[in-house]
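Quick question: what would this complex look like in 3D?
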Amino acid sequence: MEKTEQRLITEDGRRIDGRALDEMRPVRIEAGVLDRSDGSAYIEMGKTKIYAAVYGPKEAHPRHLAQPHKAILNCRYHMASFSVEGRKAPGMTRREIELSKVIREALESVVILEEFPRSAIDIFIEVIQADAGTRTAGLTAASLALADAGIPMLDLCAGIAVGKVEGKIVLDPSEEEDKKGEADMPVAMTPRLGSIVLLQLNGRLTSAEFREALNLAKKGIEVLYELQKKALSKKFESATPLGEE
Amino acid sequence: MRFQASGRVVLPGDKLCVVEEFMPVSGAKALKNGAVVATVAGIAEYDIKKHLVSVKPLESSIKIRPGDLVLCQVREVQDRLIICDILAAADYKVKTNWTAAVLHRGGTPIFTVGDIIVARVLDEYSGIYTLTVKGRGLGVFQAFCDICGAPLTPRDRTLLCLRCRRRYSNRPLVPYYGKVNTLLKMFGGLLSPEGGGLLWRSR
């Protein structure tokens, strides 16, 4: 019997979920969703659902880690056991440790750590449901949570993945496109400063494809940035400046 | 150059002006290209006379400021320095303990490890707060004996250990020494979990 393989991109240039190549999944971003943390945010990108919470600045522990001239940023990216098909072991995997590191390094470039010597800022990114693009969505939520906590930053940062599927560059690949695609490139940027704070690439792209992918990512990041600003403005629309209550 | 209207909410990264027009004070930072951007979400304020720009935050990350009244527990007593943990502040919630130091002249230390004191923040340098206990309403709220560790009882403006009968005369006392209810009125709803547990034990 002949085996027919399902096409990921249809003849009219649409993807399996009906999106155009440069179309993102539906996004919902909220700031200040958790009461107990100093700052928090929630992001939903298609089926991906992530909470981010920020605690601090607080005293750095263990104390030998404290820096005399700046704060340290601790970042924990973690996927819940129920976030993927089939149960995931609850501990930190090598992948999660690596992603915690790249997200921390991305955020270190925007947070003004010098304002809080000998302190630590803890960032927790909890993936509730995973469906591709969790590292960039987590970074976007973490950046918003930091701003929500009132931690000084040079700019918000937002991230999105671009992929290569059946020879076409697509924005925000879904789980299936991610698995079957030829390349996957998560990108995070600070839209106002215009700097790239995270860029990874799995697979191969030609230089023309790379440029196309980067431009597509920039387009997606601009959309996310506007949504981040809306979420923050909504949170603060009824707030009064401190000391004027 | 178009200015963000003074009094309007700005978000981190929003361009406020360039350094030739206004110098950043708080909540704003000058970039290498000379642009001044907001670093926190808040209200932009331009001082036209002094050519300064600042952003008044809507959410502050650190709230302990010089002049604040704080409740502390003594952690370590050194020759000229008493190191404490800030447990609560009078006007806002302190979520985690911060290290602070009280300077003293040396000689017999005025506090012992475990004492709960009410102090005022003098200054902050490099993440360490300096405190004073000189002033009205400042001093030790609950002191403990250096020798046996028992809680001290006030007697004739001094403190007496009822267990070992030792008397302490150099500790500055708050007027409501040992009265937990008064302290709870001042700090109760704002205590950190550690501070709440501490007061509960001292009852």
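Answer marked as accepted. The domain at 9-57 of chain B is CATH 2.40.50.100 (OB fold (Dihydrolipoamide Acetyltransferase, E2P)).
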